């Protein structure tokens, strides 16, 4: 592969500025299995899976709240891509109403911001499990790929790709906000290509997530998603100019 730049999807902007993304959060899916003492519900059984689940859930959701407050208290300096989010998505376990189960399981979707490594987050998980009483297993379903590089906001004075994007948007009367994408896009596979065993080039491929849509609410995967005709045609003209300008770079 001899790719200089990948252009991938972005998301709409609610303001007059366009949004362009230089990185994205890392999806981490885990199943957490809690083991404890079982028995009949007539007794106050100690060290149960449910009690460990409660303590662990309090810990991981306290971390979630800390990240939420960090975003809210940043006065607009941070966006969703700059923080780590945690959401519990599934709970499984139990035999019947009058039996304390030996095991409970919970599934979590975690989106790690690039400034928090997977190793550091695993250490948090281990500490929360220890605080909950142990006998807690982590099953990692998806961890993405560690790019093993620091994330630096692109500088258009030294990066011709970004300089061209900003210049073209400026000619169309708009500014560009640089951000970390909060979800997952196909661009991550291009950014990670140089880490694969068969890669012919060990230099990372740059990727920009950009959709020329502004003054439009973000309604992806939601009800009644729409795009104004004038905004759509404006974006088509801008994107056409952008592709031509990027192709002319040496």
Automatic annotation (TrEMBL):
The keyword Metal-binding applies. It holds the Pfam family M20_dimer. The keyword Zinc applies. Zn(2+) 2 binds at residue 221. Its cofactor is Zn(2+). InterPro entries: Aminoacylase-1_M20A, Bact_exopeptidase_dim_dom, Peptidase_M20_dimer. PANTHER family: AMINOACYLASE-1 (PTHR45892:SF1). This is Peptidase M20 dimerisation domain-containing protein.
